[in-house]
Amino acid sequence: MVRAPTKTCPNLYRIIEDAELHLLAAFLKAKAFERLEWLKQYHIDLTDPDTRDAARIMFSAENKDRLKPLETEAARIIKISGKNGQFALEGLARTKLDSECTTNLLGQRDDLGRSLAAYIQQHMLFEAAGSVAQIREGFML
Fold first, then answer.
1. Cα separation of 139 and 133, whole Å?
2. In whole angstroms, what is the distance from residue 49 CA to residue 59 CA?
3. Each residue's pLDDT expressed in tens, for the chain with a length of 141 residues
4. Contacting residues for 92 by C-beta, under 8 A, at least 6 apart
5. Which of 4, 25, 61, 96 makes the best surface tag, with the fewest CB within 10 Å?
6. Prediction pTM value
7. 76: how many CB neighbours lie within 10 A of its CB?
8. Residue 47 backbone phi and psi in degrees, to 5
9. Is residue 71 within 8 Å of residue 111, measured between CB atoms?
10. How far apart are the first and last CA of the chain?
C-alpha cells in the first residue's frame, strides 16, 4: 500500500508548501532536529532556491516514523498560526519584545509566517504563546 504523506503528516506538508523559503529552511535546520542525521542528506540551505524541492523529496521518501519529530513540531507551529495562537503571540510580542523585534515578528507575510518566525527566532515567546493559547482554548469550551 502506498503511503499518502499529505494524510500522515498534514502539518509538515503545509509548512513545506506554504511557508516562505527562508522560514522553511530555518525550520528544517532548527535545534530540535540537530540529532536527525538522516535529515542532513537533503541539503537544506537558507539561500538555495531548491530547498523546497529538497523538502518535497524528503517528505515523499521518508516514512512516517522518521518524519514524526518534524510533524510534531509542525503541528505546534500550525496551532499557533490559528486564531488563539495569533492572539497570544501578538499580545506577548507587544509586551515582551522590543519594538524592532515586534515589528519584525508581526510584519511577517501571514499567520503561518509569524508562527514560524516565533518558533525560529523567539522560541521562548513561541512556547509562552502556546501556553496562553491552550489556556484560552480551555476557557472557551
1. 10
2. 17
3. 445 667 889 999 999 999 999 999 999 999 999 999 999 888 777 787 888 888 999 999 999 999 999 999 999 999 999 999 999 999 999 999 999 999 999 999 999 999 999 999 999 999 999 999 888 777 665
4. 125, 128, 129, 132
5. 4
6. 0.90
7. 17
8. -105, 0
9. no
10. 39
Q: How far is 141 from 62, CA to CA, in rounded Å?
A: 37
> What is the DSSP code string of 43-98?
---TT-TTHHHHHHHHHHHS-HHHHHHHHHHHHHHHHHTSHHHHHHHHHHHHHHS-
Among all chains, which residue has been given the C-alpha cell 524528503?
Answer: 58
Contacts of 36 (CB under 8 A, 6+ apart): 66, 69
Helix (H) or strand (E) holding 42: none
Residue labelled with grid coordinates 518535497: 56
Task: Fill in the DSSP letter of residue 107.
Answer: T
